[in-house]
Amino acid sequence: MQLDFFPSRTLTIYLAKMFIVRIIAVLVMLVLVLMMLDLLSTSGDILAVEGNGQAQLLTYASLRIPQLVSRFLPYSVLLATLITLVTLNQNSEVISMKAAGLSAHQVLAPLLLTAALVSVVSFVFNERVVTRSTATLKTWDAAEYGVIPEDSGVRANVYLTDGDSVLSAASLTGSRDTIRMRDVTWYERSETGMILTQVRAPIATYAAPGWKLEQAVQFDVGTAQSSEPSDMTVGQSLTPDDIELDIVDPDTKPFWELSESIEAYEAVGRRTAELRAKWWHKLSGPLSAFLMPLLGAVAAFGLARSGQLFVRAIIGMALGFAYFVIDNAALAMGSFGGYPPFLAAWAPFFLFLLVGETVLIRTEE
After folding, report:
1. Of 42, 60, 61, 323, whose CA is between 20 and 30 Å from 13?
2. Which domain, by its residues, includes 200?
3. What's a GO cellular component annotated to this UniProt protein (predicted)?
4. Do 168 and 80 sit in the same domain of this protein?
């Protein structure tokens, strides 16, 4: 029995089924509570737009729920681990399994397998669903919850530089020559950074070269006068390729597309530390669910009647939340170059993998 990593088939299915049911239950509870709190703070802004109603609230919820699921799935695995192991301990099932000759790792093996499958599902869900909902929600937020752009490649809050001048847009759809910007502002600046002219337009399209502003309104700062030129083209040196490079948002790009963007950045000599750290974290982030049974394992062992079961559960929870804190801090350090991207994304994972294994071996094996 000691040479087998998994216990019997019946026991493996029993533990895995118990674990996955609790993961789903905790995740649903967290998402529902957080979604209600989110709607309390956001529904006023959504309903303030003329024509918005219950349908728009449901649309917002459908876009926000995938983000909440992605963010709190590892927390759900941690809490489900503690609930499962505490229940098994209180019912003396852990003692029975160890008396039958199972090691601590064998007791945890079904939970680790389930958590690994959850990590795989989380990765696919993030790349296929969450990236798209995040892109749409950011653009809708930038449009102040007005009309939602139909293009699935929407991007929000675009900020581009053309020499000393600046071109900004609330949202952008399309690609290459079909790029279309909305709520555009062009700032023509002097070499000292002073704004000479400000031009606003609802729409901007590629004019090859430059960008044609439709229904533009120009304000001259020096004379404090406004005008409405019939035709105006700005940003002569800005090409679709430049824009594709300047608007890369790692939260809205799938793993494989972000790889291409990073290669394009590196080809023109741009800094890629932040993008590379986010790229690695797209792998290490979902895999954090695999760590949770190991970090929460301290709650499984020790006699329940000893009075230390609650303390053990608190220790397991503290280890899990410490991982999330350090993971976020390391990712932030990697984003501005404090850590190498690979180290920023993977160091917390391997550190707490060693911590969890050390605690388990020292105390139970």
Report:
1. 323
2. 164-236
3. ATP-binding cassette (ABC) transporter complex
4. no
Residue 326 lies in a domain: yes
Q: 119: closest CA among 68, 79, 70, 64?
A: 70
- Find residue 90's DSSP bridge partners: none
Rounded to 10°, the helix 309-335/54-90 angle is 130
* Secondary structure (DSSP) of 6-39: S--HHHHHHHHHHHHHHHHHHHHHHHHHHHHHHH
Q: Are residues 89 and 139 in the same domain?
A: yes
Sign of the dihedral defined by the CA atoms of residues 222, 224, 228, 234, in that order: positive
Q: Are residues 169 and 139 in the same domain?
A: no
Angle between helices 273-295 and 255-267 (to 10 degrees): 150
On whether both 229 and 282 belong to a single domain, the answer is no
Regarding whether 110 and 170 lie in a shared domain, the answer is no
Cβ atoms 265, 275 nearer than 8 A:
yes
Q: How does pLDDT run along the chain (365 residues), one tens digit per residue?
A: 444 677 788 899 999 999 999 999 999 999 999 999 999 999 998 998 888 888 899 999 999 999 999 999 999 999 999 999 888 888 888 888 888 888 888 888 999 999 999 999 999 999 999 998 988 888 788 777 877 655 545 666 676 777 777 777 777 777 667 778 888 888 887 776 677 888 888 888 887 777 888 888 888 877 777 777 767 888 777 777 666 655 677 888 888 888 877 776 776 566 777 888 889 999 999 999 999 998 888 877 755 455 577 777 788 888 889 999 999 999 888 877 678 889 999 999 999 999 988 888 877 65
Task: Tell me if 244 is assigned to some domain.
Answer: no
Read off the pTM.
0.76
Same domain, 108 and 171: no
Does residue 308 sit in helix, strand or coil? coil
Asked if residue 232 and residue 125 are part of one domain, the reply reads no
How many structural domains is the chain composed of?
2
**Which of these three, 236, 263, 295, is where a domain ends?**
236
Contact (CB, 8 A) for 107 and 98: yes
**Residue 133, phi then psi, degrees to nearest 5:** -65, -35
Residue 31 domain-assigned? yes
